[in-house]
Amino acid sequence: MTLKYSFKTALNGLKTHKSRSVLTILGIVIGIMAIILVMSLGQGAQDLILGQIQGQVSSSVIEIAPGRQPKGPTDFLSMFSDSLKQKDLEALMKKSNVPHAEKIMPLVFGSESAVYGSETYQATLYGMTDAAGTMYNVYPGDGRFITEEDVKSYADVVVLGSKVKEELFGNDSAVGQKIKIKGRNFNVVGILASKGQGMIISFDDTVIVPYTTAQRYILGIKYFNHIIIQADSDANVPETVNDIKITLRNSHNITDPAKDDFNVNSQADALKMVSTITDALTLFLAAIATISLLVGGIGIMNIMLVSVTERTREIGLRKALGATESDVLTQFLLEAVILTAIGGIIGIFLGASLSFLTSLVLSNVLATNWAFTFPVGAAILGLGVAALVGLIFGLYPARQASRKSPIEALRYE
Amino acid sequence: MALIEVSRLEKIYADDGVMTPAVRGVTFEVQKGEFVAIMGPSGSGKSTLLHVLGFLDRQTAGSYRFSGKTIDDYSSKELARVRNKEMGFVFQTFNLLARINVLENVKLPLLYSGIKESLWDHMAKEAIEAVGLSHRLEHESAKLSGGEKQRVAIARALVLNPQVIFADEPTGNLDSKSGQAIMETLQHLNEEHGHTVILITHETYTAEHAQRIIHILDGKIDSDEKVDRRRKSNEFSK
């Protein structure tokens, strides 16, 4: 029998049992739909998270934190140590030590209340330099940012996050006004442009002062919470990370790298970690979705077995009229594969549509820029898996059908 | 050379260790172009014999030669090919596929024939015309009368112009008038087109349309005689 006619025969077989075929397809549709939905939403979430990190922090940024790389719960305590000092900063600034460091910025932070008249707001305080602009993509929407001069002169100037400004000043102009932090007067020199909600790192809630001022007059510390270094290019990041480690070990007299009292993380590492986590989550969900596909496959086998029993006489007749075993096998196998293929296509379509709707809702309701991505790989995989499910779960019933003796099949009541 | 040569043929069914002999050593020949009726009461083994003759089942012992070749020489694929090309089957219960139309039912053997698809319609229509059902081409077969169904089955048996037509109680489920028409068609095919016909029946009246009657009793041949006064279907149709 020609393949074309086998196809027609199989299609006819399915058409004559419409409702049964539809129910069988449903199992596959749900399985494939779940896979596509999970993969597509997972991809969307990952793109969103990575996009936010990449969009806000330059990918050539390297962060040095005190304490060693945390390896267990107790290690987190060491994160608050004071191992990063002025002499480290000076060592790192030497071109001979870290040749590819373009900008270096010490960072101190704490939680402080900002007071204006009768208004008080608890904000995150950052002590930074003018380098923060390119590193973290923060720019004033009004006024100016902190300058090199401010840092050198321990100036009492402050740049407000948009939310802090709103809480303290409402709609009034804030630049030129004075606010109090820890009882000390600060000139408001700039307001940051709002970055909106949904961002992972938001400066809307912060007040930024020169790090020198913050150390001496607000926090009363001599160490740094972080040192941030921007490499001159993304390609030089790994080399720079290495240079930083060597410089700091020399500065701290450490010979055994296992005893490092600091840790160095590049933005690239952070991105890698985030995508590893989201990948793992997506895979986990896809594995669950696969189980529903398996259930769908068993449903197909069940239906095909019923179909074979129910059509025993038809099989007998076809054999009496000259069908070979392989003709019958092909017919029933094709029926199963057509069922799963149709289910697969519908599932991909529904899964993609649902994912698209979800991305619309997420981007509108939550005001994020969640982008819809059609998971081509998952679609191809889904279709392949569907066809495979049809083949595997269709094979047993089809073999049962093809091996029937024609006369016993014809006599079957 | 005879078309069908059967020698000491036996068929024993073994079911749960219980041996039930259905055919117990029969020997006969059928020449090309003959019209033979195999008669016997229920359980005499006549249907079992037909199944072996029609390659639907294999014998337990003895030999069966079809067209000079013994059945044991055929692989299951070759058996399927012979059933397809050389044999046509007409069953008591018609065995049409209920939900497809007359034309598609008659086309069934063509699916497995290796003949080009472009010729199928023409061949099937010719066979349907031969049984006088051209006006029913598009009818769903489930909606036909019993007589019409059996004529579709005959058209299906004819479509590949086989050497021999096996008819297993073809009139058993029909009223006498429809049965008459079926016998008329079979006789016509035998006389005008030279098809060998092997008819299974338990009615003497139906059997007498054949040229020769083989009586089977308890799996053995009781008698094998020519029909002296052969019935012509049209004698009774009036």
TrEMBL record, chain A:
Species of the source: Candidatus Jorgensenbacteria bacterium GW2011_GWA1_48_11
Membrane topology summary: Multi-pass membrane protein
Keywords of the record: Cell membrane, Membrane, Transmembrane, Transmembrane helix
Domain ABC3 transporter permease C-terminal: 287-406
Protein name (record): Multidrug ABC transporter substrate-binding protein
Compartmental location: Cell membrane
Keyword Transmembrane helix attributed: yes
Transmembrane segments: 21-42, 281-308, 328-350, 370-396
Residues annotated as domain MacB-like periplasmic core: 21-245
UniProtKB/TrEMBL annotation, chain B:
Gene3D superfamilies: P-loop containing nucleotide triphosphate hydrolases (3.40.50.300)
Domain ABC transporter, first and last residues per copy: 7-237
Domain of life per record: Bacteria
Record-level GO cellular component terms: membrane protein complex; plasma membrane
Keywords: ATP-binding, Nucleotide-binding, Transport
Gene Ontology MF term list: ATP binding; ATP hydrolysis activity; transmembrane transporter activity
InterPro entries: AAA+_ATPase (IPR003593), ABC_transporter-like_ATP-bd (IPR003439), ABC_transporter-like_CS (IPR017871), ABC_transpr_LolD-like (IPR015854), MacB-like_ATP-bd (IPR017911), P-loop_NTPase (IPR027417)
Pfam families: ABC_tran
Protein's name according to its UniProt entry: Macrolide-specific efflux protein MacB
